[in-house]
Give the backbone structure.
Amino acid sequence: MNETTLYRRIARRETHQSRSTASVVVLALVSIGAVYVGIEVVLALLGRPPLLVSPAQAVVAFGSKAAWLPWAGLGAIVFGLILVLVAIVPARRARHALPNERMAIVVDDRALAGALATEARLAAGVPKNRVRASVSRSRGLVSLTPSSGYPVSQGDAQEAADRLLAALAVSPRLRARVSVSENAVVGS
Amino acid sequence: MTRSNRILNRALILLVGVVAIAAGLALELPTFSPRLGLQTPKLAVPSDDVLWIVFAACVAVVVLSLLWMFTRGRGRTSELLVLGDPNGSITVDARVAGDLIADGLADHRDIASVGSGSYRMRGQRVLSLRVVIRPSADLPGVIRDVAQKIDELDVVLERRFPVLLQVVAGR
């Protein structure tokens, strides 16, 4: 396999959650059901009394209008719909992939937020404890709180954040938004 | 990181989900069929032959499920490189490669720690590096420096193997 393809595959695996735990849980439930049915079938074959219901009783109950039947059906439908959702939802992790020729790179969103915060606050001249940043799938939010009497240039900070994101070229693509708090704070 | 096929995981969950929905709809039939003008099929009481078939199906489901459960999550390996030779073979542990890179980055001001492991994927052994960076680190700089260490490792091992770099935030 060619290296680029391999790296793309690795990056995808690292930015999406595996469903193998879910598949194991589902199969464990299915197995428990199969073991139970198997036991009832063997008891019926041996002519012994059933644990709960014999296969013959189950078949008769299906044809009846027992009140619990539609509820059991509803339960099965809801369970099935949940599984279909689990199978289809992409399950992204809070990570972004970075393009690189030599390796597959994935960066936690928290690390990206830290890098954005550092770039923005250095460009704006704001101390460390006056900056907050968070990164979601497509947006990086940075908020700066200026010190009283030291005006902060939102434009400079925004430009620095944009430059960082352009240099990193993360995927899925991220847009930075820098906001400067209206209320400055006194002291450091 | 595992070698198991991720699409298969999802396909299996989807299959069980669809079967559960179908079974649920079947249970609704006797109650709602008169209103919809449908006939509920009358099921015969199962004969011994049918019971044997059901039993065999149950055994098959349990065996296949157990096989599936115990084949998830394989693929981790500690051997990064195995060089075969008529006179024997040389194995390079992933920890050696990881330590070489970690040592090279030990004095880096932006890096708190470096962890390593390796796994097999598509017949290839992939070195995975987990780099914990400090909160105010220069991210592009860190990536550049790690890439440089990997280039140096390529020279030392005289091999180029796939690398996964995970960057996480420390405190």
Observations:
- The beta strands of chain B are 79-85, 88-93, 111-121, 124-133, 163-169.
